[in-house]
Design goal:
alpha/beta, 2 domains, 4-stranded antiparallel sheet, globular
Length: 224
């Protein structure tokens, strides 16, 4: 039976005392896919930021990966983030090194030492996102969609319990967008939870999952 991975009850999300969302109630289990929808500025990204402690929560109940986000200490945040894969709108790929070296940089920063183990793991995650043959390419030699695939591979490196994805298809054509969302559903099917903020309703209908909507400060269940 799947365990609860994220739990929010009566949470209010604010930025510098400006109310963004109120009465946020949210529950996500291991291996579950959830879309967060809403117009630009409705609070989608702010909600994601609270999940990885980039935006503090001071009220209600909020837990993720067994960490209490109300009481979490600053020194615990890096440990929490190792359980979370983050795919932001700014891919932040290192342009001066290959795909393999981008991923190698992350693993070494996480304490991985064995070059053979590192190389095997990189090949594994690149294969999972269907670009195993792109490891020697520089980021500027890849399409925007392929760069997104590298970013997903990077998010998978530490075998996270959950991946947070912010508008991954905004700069992609229709075919590339479909591929990214399909890959994220494949990630979910292998047991990693996914939260994806988007306003691409066509892809949601094509790849259905649970939906939460941000609108006029409210956060609520939604169905097409």
């Amino acid at each position: 039976m799947a365990e609860t991975l994220v739990y929010y009850k009566n949470v209010k999300i604010e930025i510098k005392k400006n109310l963004i969302l109120h009465n946020v109630n949210f529950e996500q289990k291991n291996g579950e896919f959830v879309y967060i929808i809403g117009e630009t500025g409705s609070g989608k990204s702010s909600f994601l930021r609270t999940l990885y402690c980039d935006l503090p929560i001071n009220n209600g109940e909020a837990c993720i990966c067994n960490y209490n986000l109300i009481k979490i200490k600053k020194k615990q945040i890096p440990m929490l983030r190792r359980k979370i894969g983050i795919l932001s709108q700014d891919l932040k790929l290192l342009v001066d090194r290959s795909v393999n070296d981008n991923l190698k940089f992350i693993l070494k920063s996480l304490g991985w030492r064995s070059i053979d183990v590192i190389n095997d793991h990189i090949l594994e995650v690149l294969d999972q996102v269907e670009i195993a043959n792109k490891g020697c390419k520089m980021p500027n030699e890849l399409s925007i969609g392929e760069q997104q695939q590298v970013a997903i591979a990077r998010a998978l490196l530490n075998s996270p319990e959950i991946i947070l994805v912010d508008e991954p298809t905004g700069n992609l054509d229709e075919k590339a967008g479909e591929k990214i969302v399909r890959l994220l559903h494949n990630v979910k099917n292998k047991g990693t939870a996914v939260v994806m903020a988007t306003h691409n309703y066509r892809l949601i209908k094509e790849f259905p999952a649970k939906i939460k909507k941000c609108e006029n400060g409210f956060f609520f269940d939604y169905q097409f």
